[in-house]
Structure formats: C-alpha cells, structure tokens
Amino acid sequence: MLRLNRLALTRKLLPSIQCTTKYSTVVAQEPQRPNLKTEVPGPNTKRLFEQLNSIQQAGSVQLFADYDKCTGNYFVDADGNEFLDVFTQISSLPLGYNHPELLNAFDDPHSLKTLINRPALGVFPSVDWPQRLRNVLISVAPHGMQSVFTMACGSCSNENAYKAAMFSYRVKERGGSVDFTDQEMTSVMKNQPPGTPDLSIMSFEGAFHGRTFAALTTTRSKPIHKLDCVAFDWPAAKFPRYKYPLDENTRENKNEDAKCLDSVREHIEAYKKKGRPVAGLIVEPIQSEGGDYEASPEFFRSLQKICKQHNIAFIVDEVQTGAGPTGKMWCHEYFDFPHAPDIVTFSKKMLTGGFYFSPEYKSPHAYRIFNTWMGDPGKLVLLDKVIKVIKQDKLLDLVCKTGAVLKSGLHELEKEFSTHIHSVRGRGTFLAYNSPTTELRDKIFTNMRKKGVMGGVCGNNAIRLRPALIFEPKHAEIYLDILRKVLKEL
Q1: Where would a tag sit more exposed on the chain, N or C end, judged by fewer CB atoms within 10 A?
Q2: Catalytic amino acids?
Q3: pTM of the model
Q4: Domain segments of the chain: what residues?
Q5: What is the CATH number of domain 111-390?
Q6: Alpha carbon distance 105, 112 (integer Å)
Q7: In what order do the strands lie in the sheet with 74-76?
C-alpha cells in the first residue's frame, strides 16, 4: 500500500513536468538504469589510483570518471560502470553532466576570449564586466541585495566575507572614520593591536565553512579538517539537533531552539568580556558537511535579530544550499527574514564563488577585498546559461516535485526499515537520513554504490542526497527501489 501511494504521487506529478525542455533532452540520452560491468572499484580505477597516489595523497579518491561518457544524472567511471549520481561532484553540478547549453557556451568567439584571457578582475576587468555582473549575478541576488564580489571558491568567499565584516565593525568603532592612525599602520605590520584588532567570528558546532585558515577556524564538522593547524580563539555556539518526526516533537524542538539561541547570546557576552568581540556570525541554512542538520525559520529569524541587537554581521553561508537544490534559489528564502542578511556567500552550483553584501559591508578602500583573479568571467558565461535553463525549464518546480516523491519514499522506507534508517529531513531534493551507527551508515553507502548509486555521507551517521536540478521523479523511484533492496539485504 505504501509503495502504491508513492507511485500514485509520482503519476500525479509527472504530467505537469513532461514537456519538451533542455533537461528532458538530456535525460532522454541517459541509461535507463544503473549498469555495472565490473566490481567497484574496477581494475582501471585501481590502476589509476596507484598512478595518482604515487604523485599526491589520493586517499580521498573514490572513482575516476570518464567525463566524455557521463550524461545528465549518470556518472560513468573508468571501467565503464554507469551510476545514478545523487551526489553530483559534492553538490556542484546544477544541470548534471554534459548539458548541451553548457557544451555550447563557448561557441561564441567573444565568450571564448573571455575564457582564455582570464583577467585580473580587480585591476583589468573587461568592458562588459559591470553589465555581465548585473545580468547574471544580480539577476538572481537574494531579495534586497544589489552588491556582489566574485571569488574562486567557497572557502575564499567566506574568508573575504569575514574580512568585510571586520572592516565594517572597525569603521563603526572609529565612529564612521575610514582613516587609519600612524599607530595602526605601524602595529599591523607586527600583527599587534590596534592595527590588528582582537575580533572574532562566531560559527556553530558541526559547521563547515572551508579549509583556508579563518574559514577553517569556523569549521567544526570533523577533526581531520583541522588537526595540526593553528586556529583562532573564536566562539562556536550550539546548533539545533532536532527530534523527528518534526510534527511529533514540536515542544522538544522549540526548547532546542531556545537553548541554542541562549548559547549564542552567552558566547557574545563571554567574548566581549574577553576583549575579543564578535564582528560577524556565520551560519548555514542547513548544516551540510556536519550532518545535514536543519533549524526552524523561527530560529533563523531570532538569530538575525540577535545580530542586529549587537551590531554583528549576519552572514548566511549558501555555498552548498544556493542555486536551487532546496526548491528555492536561496534556502534562506524559506525563513521569511524581515530584511536581507548582511552577507550571503555562494559557490558550488553557482559555478563561481563570491558573496552578496549590503552597502555598509562594501570595503572603503581598494585592494582590501582582492586577489589576482577574483573569480573567473568564464564561469559567469556558464552561469548565465545555467540561470536561463533554470528559468526556462522551471527547474525549481521540478526540484520541489521530485523532492516530494523522494522524501515521501524515504519516509516509507524509514517506517519499513526503522532499525536501519531514521530522521528523514531536508527541503526539495536536498535531503538526508540517518543510520543508528557509523558502521551501518557506511555499509549502506558502500552497498548502494555496488548497486550503481553514487551518494554521499556526512556527519557521524548521515547519508545525504545532492542530485542535479534535472533529477526527475523517475530517478527518485530508481534510487528508492535500490535503497529498499540494500536495506532488505542487510
């Protein structure tokens, strides 16, 4: 009966999405289902791993891809095995593999020259750069935000967002002055105050914000990311850990929100007393690497309010949640903020890195938010195509429809196999579920891959789904069917 209910939901949704679209053209070229020709990993993959590992530390490598053969939602490895990919390069492929709009992006000579003459954007941008920023990045900016800096990746986006928060904080401390004293100019070269102020950025337990040094300090997801690296003494507040199902644990989860908000306030006061005031607070709409933990809109609105009360920059890290996987362009749209965040960072599905910011976080001096390339205009050529496809093919609607099928099916499976998986959660197709132990989680993950599904794990015991925006209900059904077989065989 449960499976029939899910199939009925799939059939109900399919008529509204079956049409001639760019993504349907791509999907038509895919394999019908996963198809494994060798063991996983296969002999070619093992050989390539040995070659790569002789050059660098390759312990993180799972498979080698034949990108000429990858199509849509399917990943093809070096041994010709065809996998349904629900992880998509760590959530960074918005349109799946080899989308025709992207394959043709550089056919135009002007676009090609934009790619090969990669400029130092902070010094020598092209004549069309201001308009390109407006047409592409500003066209999808979070509501109320009209300013953006481009960067190369998520880590450097967050790193520079922290700098913007500190610059703004210091301007306020100086009473609005942007001039520096001789003492500041001298002391900063010795890494001493007042030129090097003792400020902090608050993050949350379980957070992941990158692997560069300031970003790494705010990363709290796994020890291996940080061991042996110097870190700043910056605060980490508690982030909600909800009980599921949500509708059966309303009181407990409201209490969890209150406890975590108290933790934020306590850390703000404690670091103020230490002489290391909080200049910015960074938070993910869904804690991804740390375990796919979510929080309520009420929690996030209260968090923004606390930041306003203490003149702290409210930074929303949308590196993984941005560009549509939750069913909205920006996940924080679900939170109904009374006003825009101060800073929103992005990368992954946005193809370029960067951050949007409100006017007070615009650096008052040149070269302070700066590096040689400051991103890559070629990435905006690709992103322009992506945004047009998202709009023309109504991919955010597809994400919501497919997500409904996928989440419904996962809820059925957690009831049927309650000793194996639980705590299904998420928005759109940005979903996750837990296993009781790390060992069982890893076994499910490994057995899914042996049956042709590429997935991801996070936290201590979570499996996460990060499919492309072109992931359809039929792909959701394939995933659910294979997951059921895996769970039944445990």
Answers
A1: N
A2: 208, 317, 348, 372
A3: 0.94
A4: 111-390, 395-428
A5: 3.40.640.10
A6: 8
A7: 74-76, 82-85, 453-454
